[in-house]
Specification:
Elements: E1 2-6, H1 15-28, E2 34-38, H2 44-51, E3 58-59, H3 67-76, E4 81-85, H4 91-100, E5 103-109, H5 112-128, E6 132-137, H6 144-154, H7 168-171, H8 180-183, H9 188-210
Parallel strand pairs: 1-4, 1-5, 2-3, 2-4, 5-6
Helix pairs in contact: 1-2, 1-9, 4-5
The structure holds adenosine-5'-diphosphate and magnesium ion.
Length: about 220
């Protein structure tokens, strides 16, 4: 089982959005069973998951100090991936999670504020020696700031080839807790999430073959 933590210290960078859409995409791609853990006290991921009719991805409720033991149980139950959503601004908690992660997805908006905040998380990731991938989120097509952000971030680590577009569909509710990618499986959001999941998997597998902490 691979444990993927989704973290950035900046609020609103799309951590929860990616936890939802990537977990759904991983199941769709046949890479499950996928489990979700929501470590954010705000509980947005949990609230979304409660609305779902689909049985996958599954979510497990674990107290923070029970996560390591819980991950052991998930492994025994044949889980393939566990995606952990995190809160912003809780550096110590994030550092604990980086210790148990196989990989970290680090969403960043192409904005001055997000770029300024990024080095704090990068520092923690490098201290933990965990491989990570920047994902540019809420990207508006053909903007200079997107290219600048990719260039700045690439000095600190790898940037996912797939940029996540700013799409109303990602924040809109769909019946039965579906994501847009389930509601419109041939639409642009579905193609984007599928490409991003492939980017993440190849980066993760590359880091496994190199040994943890090569990013
Ligand atoms: N690519 C996107 N396009 C449009 N809206 C987005 C996108 N990504 C996230 N959002 C919206 O932006 C807000 C913040 O995203 P969220 O995932 O909650 O951030 P975080 O969990 O990092 O605080 C939410 O309302 C979410 O639906
Ligand atoms: Mg969130």
């Amino acid at each position: 089982m691979q444990v993927i933590v989704i973290n950035s210290q900046k609020g609103g960078s799309a951590k929860t959005m990616l936890a939802k859409h990537l977990s759904v995409e991983a199941e769709r791609a046949g890479d499950g069973p996928v489990f979700l853990i929501d470590t954010d006290p705000q509980g947005s991921l949990t609230a979304w998951h409660a609305k779902r009719e689909s049985e996958t991805p599954q979510r497990v409720d674990l107290p923070f100090d029970g996560i390591e033991r819980g991950l052991g149980l998930l492994r025994q139950h044949g889980a393939a991936y566990c995606l952990i959503d995190t809160a912003s601004g809780r550096v110590e908690v994030a550092q604990e999670l980086f210790r148990i992660a196989d990989f970290v997805v680090f969403p960043v908006q192409a904005s001055e504020d997000d770029l300024t905040a990024a080095p704090v998380t990068v520092q923690s990731l490098k201290e933990a020696g965990v491989p990570f991938l920047f994902v540019l989120t809420r990207v508006k097509a053909n903007t200079l700031i997107t290219a600048q952000a990719a260039a700045v971030l690439s000095r600190h680590g790898q940037v996912a080839e797939t940029f996540v577009g700013d799409r109303t569909a990602y924040k809109s509710p769909y019946p039965k807790g579906q994501t847009i990618t389930e509601a419109e499986p041939r639409g642009p959001a579905a193609k984007e999430m599928s490409a991003l999941w492939e980017n993440i998997k190849s980066c993760l597998h590359e880091s496994i073959s190199l040994g943890r902490g090569q990013n």
